[in-house]
Structure formats: structure tokens, C-alpha cells
Amino acid sequence: MNLPNYVSGQWKEGTGPGDALIDPVTGEELARISSKDIDVQAALNHARTKGVPSLQSLTYAQRAELLGKLGELLTSNRDEYFRISLLNSGANAADASFDVDGALYTMKFFAKIGKPLGEGKILKEGAVLPLSKTNVFSAQHFLEPAKGAAIFINAFNFPAWGLCEKAAPALLAGVPIVVKPASPTAWLTHKMVEDIVKSRILPEGAISMVVGSARDLLDHVREGDTVSFTGSADTAARIRSNENILRRSVRVNIEADSINSAILGPDVTPGTDLFDLFVREVVREMTLKAGQKCTAIRRILVPRAQMKSLGEAISARLAGTKVGNPRNAEVKMGPVVNKAQQTSCLEGLRKLKEECSVIFGGDEKFQPVDADREKSAFVQPTLLACNDGLEAKYVHDVEVFGPAATLVAYDSEENLIAIARRGLGSLVASIFSNDPNFLRNVILGIGDMHGRLVVVDSSVGGQHTGHGNVVPSCLHGGPGRAGGGEELAGLRALLLYHRRFVVQGPPSLLTELASIAADASLLYA
Ligand code: NAP
Questions:
Q1: Closest C-alpha to 124, from 524, 469, 515
Q2: Quick one: which H or E segment has residue 246?
Q3: Which of 60, 237, 278, 483 has the fewest C-beta atoms under 10 angstroms from its C-beta?
Q4: CA atoms lying within 13 Å on the CB side of residue 369
Q5: pLDDT at residue 520 above 90?
Q6: Res 53: pLDDT
Q7: What integer is the mean pLDDT of 27-52?
Q8: pTM to 2 decimals?
Q9: Distance from the alpha carbon of residue 224 to the mean position of ligand 1, in angstroms
Q10: What percent of the chain has pLDDT over 90?
Q11: Among candidates 125, 161, 71, which has minimal Cα distance to 63?
């Protein structure tokens, strides 16, 4: 099966052998993709010349209605998306749900929150500012949807959510999308885009898709376009420094990898509710989607006195987690996405082992349940321990994108904050403690280096949304190594696809422009 590109309003197959999409459990080939000889420049032009006018002739409320229809359409095909997730990502039902249901929820969420923007076509920001003594000359700031394409370059681990969390705000803003899914798992994104195109819900030019490596895509982006990238820090650096992007000052949002931490407070001891919640959360983060989440816990920062008891508690749970073919009902954790990722995980673990001891797992020849070790791409859940968090190098730097995490001992609040900051910018940290002073000091000590802080005390208990779970109402992104991007955060997500300008002129003109504008303060409601 060859999966075609959808460009310039047409399905087109790339030439050449392309890349194979593989079942990571059986090693079988599922489909092939190629973007060779696809005219991506024409595809981007089509989005700009057809998609921009067709979407931007609509109001925010009309576009929100389209998102609602897309949400219903995608929900009606949910079973097929789960089937593809199992085949192409080795995802069990929980893994597939995290991606697919997260995608459907996000689409419907933006449909709902977009409605109050109503009949507006642009946004007005703040009050009219008088600029002359007699008030004949004033100023008003506006935000207008960009008249360019939104180009999404996505990571392999969220083929469904990665599409929808970017598409929903871009389309609501009135900006047409061109998505390039990561090659290894492109099938699911492809199927969703195929369903959307067939439904004819979106106007002409609003959605395009390039499957395959498409390495020349960025050479054709222009001033009005927006590039939204999710992937590794290494690729992010390459995208950020692309000459065409630099020369044209193309707006780029980067969501990269990060070495996230979970912090156990000094007041939390074995046998308490918070200790058990913490253990459960760490194991969930290590095993859900086989640890292939950008937000997953990589460093577990623990008071030195609790290293042993915490290590034992996590190991006991990991020992009870069956790893293997997700078609077996007893299996709780599946494979990583392919052999290349397996190799990369094992290489990363070897580095970590140079400065850490292995508490659980770490067997490169580990035998998964109901799967051929040679053909499949499994990594054994692995817990490591590091005694000197400030001296360690790899622990803060090597992202093992799989089921692995490292316990790191800390000795004081100051020491803990210094160790957490060694991640040099992370998407998320979670802090489990009942001590308000400790919580406040840690939040103020590491907040600027994180996009999201999850605080769990006994009053929250099990009702938190999860360390690794990105909810569309809250900010997703992080500084420094995490890419410096900002996504979601409700309607604030629309800012990426708008351009701000100020009009200085007669107040009557400003009033007229304001009559077609929704109030930008709604973005912060
Ligand atoms: P990746 O290798 O960096 O690839 C990401 C995307 O970039 C893919 O679509 C890839 O295409 C494309 N790409 C690679 N080189 C390119 C180039 N020179 N020009 C244009 N596009 C290029 O990342 P991945 O392995 O797919 O994903 C795993 C990583 O993503 C992890 O490090 C994870 O932490 C991170 N991630 C971050 C977030 C977040 O929100 N912060 C979310 C999910 C994942 P091909 O697949 O065709 O090579």
C-alpha cells in the first residue's frame, strides 16, 4: 500500500521506493510513503492562495463550527484509528487512547471555546490610546490572522494528537494547514487527513499533507507562514537555523524534547498516600506509550534518605508489568516505535549506565511476551540511580525516549533546585509534598525553567490530571532545551497564527475597524 500526499487539492504519490512503515511487534511492512518529486512549493502556494481566502472569509464562530464537525467526524472513525495505532505504533488501547482520544478532545475543546469569538474577523487588543491633545489622532492595537500557511512538522509519538492540537487553533484562527507527519507513524495522520478531505467539511486549500521526508519544505516557506515543529532538540536546531527561515523571519514555534523531573518532597515517606501516588505516577509515566512521551518523567528527584525505599517500590511495580505484544490481553506495555528507536534507547541507556547504577531492568537481551526479540522493537523498563546529581552529566542531557527513568538523590532544598535546573529548560516537573513552604520555594526556584508545574498534595490526591498529560486549556511548551515554544493554553493558542499591528489614525476609523473585531481579552478569559 502506497500512501499518497494530498497537495494542491489532489492526491499524489511520490516517486521512488520511499520509506516503509513497519509493525514494531512483527517487523512486517505495512505501507510505503514518499514525497519525492512532490511540488511542495506549489502545495504551499495552494494553501496561501485558496486556503487563506476561503477560511478567512468566515468568522471565528463559523470556523469553530467547522471544528465541531471535524470533532464528530473523527470520533465516528475512532475504532479505525485505534486499529492503525496498534499496527503502526504497537499501541495498546491505553496508549492509543492517550493519542487518539486526546486528539478528539482537543478538536472539540477548540470548537467549544472558539464560539464566543463570534462574528469577529480580527481581534482588537486593549483600549484606544489617545495620541493628540484634541483626540483627533489615536491608536488601537489589532491582531489579524496571518495570510500564510501553517506548516506542521510533527513527531512520531503523537500522530493523532500532534495533528489536532496544532490544527484546531490554526484553523480556528483562519490559517490553512500543511502537515508533515513523522515518517515512522505517518499512517494514522494520513488516515485522519483522508477522512477530513473526503468529508468536504473544510473549504478548498484549508488542509494539505506531505508524507515522507520532504526535506525541502522549509526552503519554500515565506514571511506570512508559521512553522510549528515538534520533535527532537537536534532537529529543532536545524529547523531554527534554516537559512530561508532566518532570512524571511518566518515565525517558528518549537516543541522539543526535555529531561522532565518528578520531585518527592522530604516530608513524603513510605506508607503515606502521597508516596504511593508518586510511585504510581512514575511507573505510569515510564510504561504508558512505552515511555515515548515528550513530557515523560526522566529524572526522579528524591531525598537521599528515601532512595532505597522508593527504588524498591518502583521496581516492585515494574516487575509486575507484563511487557510484550499488545494483542495479548495481559500485556501492559508495548514496544517502542521501531528498531532505530530501540537502538537509540539502548545507546542512551549505555551512556546513563556510565554514571548510574541499574536498579531494575536494563537487559538488552530481554524477552518480550508473545514477540520475536529479533524482529520486534522492545526495550525493558529500566530504573537507574544516580548519587551525585550535580556531578552527573548524561542524566540531565540524554533523553532515552523509552521506558527509562533515573532516581537522583538530593540533600537539601537548594541542592534539589540546582539539580532540577540542570535540565536547562523542561516541559514539566511534578512536585509531591504536603509542605507549603517547600512547595513555594521549589516553585519559585524552578518555575522559570519549566512550562508546567504539577503540584500534588494530599488534598489533590489522585484527582490530578497527570504529570505527562497535556490538557488543551493549559500551556504546553517549555524554555531552553524544551524549545522555547508555547502551544495550547486555550484561546491563547491563536496568538501564534495572528500578527499584531497598531493603527494610528482618526478615532472614527478605529471604531469602524473595531466593529469587525472580537475582543482579544477573550483569549485570556
Ligand atoms: P525528530 O527525529 O526530530 O523528527 C521530528 C520531525 O522532523 C519528523 O517529522 C521528521 O521527519 C522531521 N525532520 C527531521 N529532520 C528534518 C529536517 N532536516 N527538515 C525538516 N524536517 C525534518 O523527532 P521524532 O523522532 O519524530 O520524535 C521524537 C522526539 O520528539 C523526542 O525527542 C520527543 O521528546 C520529541 N517530542 C516533543 C514533543 C513536545 O511537545 N515538546 C512532543 C512529542 C515529541 P521524518 O520522520 O520524515 O524524518
A1: 515
A2: helix 243-248
A3: 237
A4: 14
A5: yes
A6: 98
A7: 98
A8: 0.97
A9: 23
A10: 99
A11: 71
pLDDT cut 70: percent of the chain above it:
100
185 CA distance to ligand 1 middle (Å): 11
- Residue among 215, 288, 294, 337 to mutate when testing ligand 1 (max atoms within 8 A of CB): 294
Q: Given the CA of residue 487, which atom of ligand 1 is nearest to it? A: 40
Distance 254 CA to ligand 1 centre (A): 10
Which positions are catalytic?
A: 255, 294
- Report the 10 Å Cβ neighbour count for 76: 11
Helix spans in 252-302 (H): 273-287
* CA-to-CA dists, residue 395 to 132, 250, 281, 351, 386, angstroms: 59, 34, 20, 9, 8
pLDDT tens string 385-405: 999 999 999 999 999 999 999
What are the pLDDT digits (tens) for 252-267?
999 999 999 999 999 9
Question: Using CA atoms, how far apart are residues 499 and 225, in angstroms rounded to an integer?
Answer: 11
Distance CA 327, CA 383 (A): 26
Determine the number of helices (DSSP H) and then strands (DSSP E) in the chain: 15, 23
Write out residues with Cβ below 6 Å of ligand 1: 153-158, 180, 182-183, 213, 215, 218, 230-232, 235, 238-239, 255-257, 294, 399, 401, 427
Residue whose CA is closest, atom 42 of ligand 1? 294
The band of 1, judged by pLDDT with boundaries at 50, 70 and 90, is confident
The predicted-structure confidence for 416-458, as pLDDT tens digits, reads as follows: 999 999 999 999 999 999 999 999 999 999 999 999 999 999 9
- 180, 202 Cβ separation under 8 angstroms: no
Instruction: Name the residue with the closest Cα to ligand 1, atom 32.
Output: 232
CA 233 to chain centre: 13
Paired residues of 369 in beta bridges? 324
How high does pLDDT run on average in the chain? 98
In Å, how far are 311, 364, 385, 395 from 404, measured between CA atoms?
13, 13, 11, 11
For residues 82 and 100, what is the distance between their CA atoms, to the nearest angstrom? 7
Cβ atoms of 430 and 420 within 8 Å: the answer is no
CA 98 to chain centre: 12
Ligand 1 atom at shortest distance from the alpha carbon of 482: 41
Residue to probe by mutation, ligand 1, list 161, 209, 230, most atoms within 8 Å of CB: 230
Q: Tell me what pLDDT residue 525 has.
A: 87
E strands present in 246-310 = 251-255, 260-264, 297-303
Closest C-alpha residue for ligand 1 atom 18: 215
Length of the chain: 525
Atom of ligand 1 nearest to the CA of 186: 46
201: confidence class by pLDDT, cuts 50, 70, 90? very high
Cell triple for 274: 502521597
Cα–Cα separations (whole angstroms), residue 433 to 270, 272, 460? 13, 11, 11
CB atoms closer than 10 angstroms to residue 215: 10
Asked if 446 and 274 touch (Cβ cutoff 8 Å), the reply is no
